[in-house]
Structures are given as C-alpha cells and as structure tokens.
Amino acid sequence: MNYRHLFIFIGLLTLASCGPKQEAKKTIKDFVDQNVKTETDYSFSDFGKLDSTRYVTDSLITVMRQNANRNAAFNGAIGYGKRTADKQLKYLPVKMSVNGSDTTFTFYLTNDLQQVVSFK
After folding, report:
1. pTM for the predicted model, two decimal places
2. Euclidean distance between CA atoms 69 and 62, whole angstroms
3. Counting C-beta atoms within 10 Å of the first and last residue's C-beta, which end of the chain has fewer, N or C?
4. E strand or H helix at 82
5. Which residues does residue 74 pair with via DSSP β-bridges, in sequence order?
C-alpha cells in the first residue's frame, strides 16, 4: 500500500512539473538564447509567478520593444512573436544575471505561451 501511494505521489509531481509555467520558462529561455548577443554572459536565477493581464496596450508593447532594442545585452533586431486578437497576455518576471549584474525582466507572452511579445 505504501508503494502505491509513493507511485501516485511521483506521478502527480511529474504532471505538476509539466504545467504552464514550465512551458513559459522554456519559451523565455529559447527567446533569450536566440536574441542575446553572443558575447553576453547570462544565467537565469529565479522565475516568478505566471500571471495574465489585459492592460498592456499595443502602444505600450511598441515602447517596451524600443527600450529593449537599446539594451546592450540583446541584438538590435529582436525577433518577437505577434500579439493575437485576444488582448490578454501572460507575463512572467524573471531574475537573471547579465554580464555579472543581477536584473529582473518581465516577459510578456501570447496566451498559448508559445511566443514572447515583448519584455521590459
């Protein structure tokens, strides 16, 4: 009986680790890998709570993208995903070390968590 509970517990842990936050983390890591300058030294230290918002307007996305293009750690032509017709975005704060400095970025993703739309 104890082994049965152990297997159920392990199964539940496995399912819990494959949730939306894990998918968002993978999307963000892939995005950073593709858009950071090759000479940039970076690492991820903590991922915050995955949440959603409807308050990020298209003009705010444009401003965030313009500011990100001035970030020395990233390529000038960052490849973003397109915002869908659904105005809701998911966001995830991420603590990172970039070239030895600790910083926090907030990444905004499409609702299906497949693309980064912007970050600040």
Report:
1. 0.82
2. 11
3. N
4. none
5. 36
- In DSSP notation, 17-37 reads TTSHHHHHHHHHHHHHHHHB-
User: Tokens representing 12?
Assistant: 């539940």
Lowest average pLDDT, out of 11-20, 48-57, 72-81, 106-115, goes to 11-20
Other CB atoms within 10 Å distance of the CB of residue 27: 21
- 98 close to 73: Cβ distance less than 8 angstroms: yes
Phi and psi of 94, rounded to 5°? Answer: -135, 125
Residue 55 to residue 45: CA distance in whole angstroms: 27
Residue length of the chain:
120
Sign for the pseudo-dihedral over CA of 117, 55, 45, 17 = negative
Residue 12 has pLDDT above 60, yes or no: no
88, 98 Cβ separation under 8 angstroms: no
Q: What's the rounded Cα separation, in Å, for the pair 29 and 49?
A: 16
